[in-house]
């Protein structure tokens, strides 16, 4: 059953590999770190969302997990430039949404994304980057790192001392290689992570990705 229809557009996946133990220490009980090539992966994902007739910029910090063998995403934070959407997502889903000033502009085939968290009593965070596709789009090959990072159709969260799960439904991603210039990125540090070096980059959904999100349920 779908609870919400939305569209994701101009998505950039920036990922850093980390020691699995570092990520495991920040997960709720009942979730296991999912790894690729023996490493955990932390993603910073800027995008534009359209929902309920409104479009706004969003930035999330995520990692990859399993619960009883079922793969999914765990969000450390989701920052959105729409206070009503933040309030609704917190109330309906219990997701860690935060208010932010954020926007994105497209020019000459590149997207400029500018973000600053403004949520009361939340750790400050800043992200500024320009990103663009750098190759042909194609479905991620099964077993590849790209498939591991993007082909996820379940997310997990902790609410009221319990684990909950929600499912999303959409067509397979067709990501392209990407380039990015990151001017500022304190989102991982705000969640207690130290990331170094250049990220692994993918770009997707220039034309929009239609998504159906179902209700969350205890697991």
Describe the protein in words.
The protein is mainly β. The protein has a single domain (4-218), classed as Acetoacetate decarboxylase-like (Beta Barrel), CATH 2.40.400. It has helices at residues 20-24, 83-93, 145-150, 187-190, and strands at residues 4-9, 11-18, 32-33, 40-51, 54-67, 70-80, 97-107, 110-117, 126-133, 154-159, 162-169, 176-185, 200-204, 209-213, 217-218. It has a 15-stranded mixed sheet that branches. It is globular and about 45 Å long.
Number of helices: 4
- Give the CA-CA distance, first to last residue: 17 Å
Number of strands: 15
Oligomeric form of this entry?
single chain
The helix content is 10-25%
Q: What is the mean predicted local confidence, pLDDT?
A: 96
Number of domains: 1
Structural class: mainly beta
């Amino acid at each position: 059953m779908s609870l919400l229809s939305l569209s994701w557009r101009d998505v950039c996946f920036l990922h850093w590999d980390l020691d699995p133990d570092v990520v495991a220490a920040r997960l709720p009980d009942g979730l296991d770190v999912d790894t690729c090539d023996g490493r955990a992966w932390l993603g910073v994902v800027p995008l534009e969302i359209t929902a309920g007739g409104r479009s706004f910029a969003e930035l999330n910090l995520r990692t990859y997990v399993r619960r009883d063998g079922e793969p999914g995403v765990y969000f450390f934070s989701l920052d959105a430039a729409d206070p009503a959407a933040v309030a609704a997502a917190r109330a309906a889903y219990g997701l860690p949404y935060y208010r932010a000033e954020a926007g994105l502009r497209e020019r000459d085939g590149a997207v400029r994304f500018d973000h600053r968290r403004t949520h009361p009593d939340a750790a400050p965070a800043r992200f500024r980057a320009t990103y663009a596709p750098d190759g042909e789009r194609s479905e991620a090959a099964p077993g590849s790192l790209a498939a591991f990072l993007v082909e996820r159709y379940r997310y997990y969260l902790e609410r009221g001392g319990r684990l909950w799960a929600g499912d999303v439904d959409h067509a397979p991603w067709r990501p392209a290689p990407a380039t990015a210039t990151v001017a500022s990125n304190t989102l991982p540090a705000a969640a207690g992570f130290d990331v170094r070096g250049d990220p692994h980059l993918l770009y997707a959904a220039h034309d929009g990705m239609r998504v159906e999100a179902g209700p969350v349920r205890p697991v």
